[in-house]
Amino acid sequence: MNEMTATPAMPAQSMAADCPLCVAPAEAPLWDDGFCRVIAVDDADHPGFCRVILNRHVREMSDLAEAEQMRLMRVVFAVEKVLRQCTDADKINLASFGNMVAHVHWHVIPRWRDDRRFPEAVWAAALRPTAPARKALTRERLRAAIINELGDDLREPRP
C-alpha cells in the first residue's frame, strides 16, 4: 500500500488509504482549484489525454451535491474545449468508469480515426501496430490553455 500524504487540495479526512487517486500525485497538476485537479496522462498514442480528478474521495457522481456535479463537469467540458482547440483530433472522448479506481474522475481523451485503437476504447487491444506521429502538445501549452479557459481558480465563475 502506498504512503498517503495530505495536501491542501486533498485533506487527510477525505482520503482513502487504498485509493491511488488519494495519494499525493508524483506529477504536478496542470490546474488545481482545491476542489478538483487536471493532470496530463503520459500516453504517446493519445497526446493531450487528461484526467479531471475530484480532490476528495467520492465513489459516485450522484454522491456529490448538484452544485458540485455542475462545477466538476464545467472543468471536464473546459478541458474538452481546450483539447479541441489545441489538437487536430477527430473526436474527444469523455469517460468516467470507476471500475478500476472507485474515485470520481473523468478521462478526457483526444482520438484520431487512425489511432491504434480507433474506434474501440483506448484501453482495448490495438487494432493497428502503429499510428501516425502526432503534433506534439507540450505540457506548458496545455497548461496555459487550461488556465486561459478556467482561470487560475474556479471558485468564482468566469464571466
Strand-and-helix sequence, N→C? EEEHEEH
How helix-rich are the residues, as a percent range? 10-25%
CATH class annotation: Alpha Beta
User: Could you describe the largest sheet, including whether it forms a barrel?
Assistant: 5 strands, antiparallel
Overall mean pLDDT stands at 86
Overall CATH architecture = 2-Layer Sandwich
Protein name: Diadenosine tetraphosphate (Ap4A) HIT family hydrolase
Domain HIT: 47-118
Motif (Histidine triad motif): 103-107
InterPro entries: HIT-like, HIT-like_sf, HIT_Hint
Concise synopsis of the structure shown:
This protein has helices at 66-86, 139-150; strands spanning 31-32, 36-40, 50-54, 91-95, 105-111. By secondary structure, the chain is of the alpha+beta class.
Question: Overview of this structure, please?
Answer:
β1 (31-32) and β2 form a beta hairpin. The longest helix has 21 residues, at 66-86. The chain has 159 residues and is of the alpha+beta class. It is globular. It contains two helices and five strands, in the order βββαββα. The protein has helices spanning 66-86, 139-150; strands at 31-32, 36-40, 50-54, 91-95, 105-111. Strands 1-2-3-5-4 form a five-stranded antiparallel sheet. It has a single domain, classed as 2-Layer Sandwich (HIT family, subunit A). Residues 47-118 form the HIT domain. One of its GO terms (molecular function) is hydrolase activity. This is Diadenosine tetraphosphate (Ap4A) HIT family hydrolase. Keywords: Hydrolase. A motif (Histidine triad motif) lies at residues 103-107.
